[in-house]
Amino acid sequence: MTRINRLAYLLLFFVIPFNSSAQNTVMSKAVTPRMRVIIDNDFSGDPDGLFALTHLLLSPSVEIRGIIGSHLKVGDGFDHSATQADNAAKKATELLTLMKMAGKIPVVAGSNTGMQNDTTAIKSAGVDLIIKEASRTDTNLPLYVICGAGLTEIASAALTDSKIASKLTLVWIGGPEYADLALPPPNYSSPEYNLNIDINAARAVFNHTQLKLWQIPRNGYRQALLPYSELLTKVKPHGEIGKYLTTTLENLMGRLQQYHLNIGETYILGDSPLVLLTALQSSFEADPSSSEYTLKPCPNINAQGGYDYNAGGRNIRVYGRLDINLMFNDFFAKLELMDK
């Protein structure tokens, strides 16, 4: 144990009394926000976004400054409507209400459509929220915009006000594998799902902005496998939110079976690494130190949604191996603490 770790341990031991029957209270006193977060996700689509949002709402080290409901690809099987972003915002509000947090965090809808090209921004309440928060001068807490779907809002925000590029870190779940780092899975889709939601927005972020980018491509987020057994034993028993998340996922599993899709006994909670790389950073010299990344020149995204090598691209982090044990164990523990 290093000298600074010993000091931290002594402070925690003597200054913050431990009470096993009130761990939630102890945790809230011991941990205060050290970063700001805006979460942008397609909550009316794949339910993995709702799991990630729940996890973030239970994480005292992050100050959630806004929630943006974003659109899916036109005609997506999860939501066929023309109001996907509005529906996503409603789902986020539904979850906040269930957790008795309604009205405490701004929830807005992004654009219901993607960008028309890779240089013209779209206006939305989500874009305004990002620009306003990134432009603040009254706080030193770093800002992370974490996206688990398309990139319409952050791309439009950066195109509207280029100055915000230096004022935030974008963490994005999406993009295909890099050929020098990983192989695609069998029967893979091309373009990759999240990138394909708005290829123009991805091209804007990669090709035309200087946003600081941490990317978790498909080979990364596919590691976030939740066994159905743990859904039943470690999520479902914990209050209304545990039942809500379990029912949402079980309903989807039932619909998939109707289409003769046998997904086995795991589900990819691919948006949960957004929590791992923010709320669960290391204590000292803060960083997602238990996960591994490669620094790469930011490629250009071509019109087909593939990578084109760009020797002059800014360095971006591309995450490979993720600490899935830390991520899920923390989630399960926080759900359990709600019952204390």
Automatic annotation (TrEMBL):
Q: Does the keyword Zinc apply?
A: no
What Pfam families does the annotation carry?
Answer: IU_nuc_hydro
Provide the organism lineage as a comma list. Bacteria, Pseudomonadati, Bacteroidota, Sphingobacteriia, Sphingobacteriales
Keyword hit for GTP-binding: no
User: What is the scientific name of the source organism?
Assistant: Mucilaginibacter dorajii
Record key words, sorted: Glycosidase, Hydrolase, Signal
Which ranges carry the Inosine/uridine-preferring nucleoside hydrolase domain? Answer: 37-253
Question: Signal peptide position in this chain?
Answer: 1-22
In terms of superkingdom, the source organism counts as Bacteria
Name of the protein described by the UniProt record: Inosine/uridine-preferring nucleoside hydrolase domain-containing protein
Q: Which Gene3D superfamilies match?
A: Ribonucleoside hydrolase-like
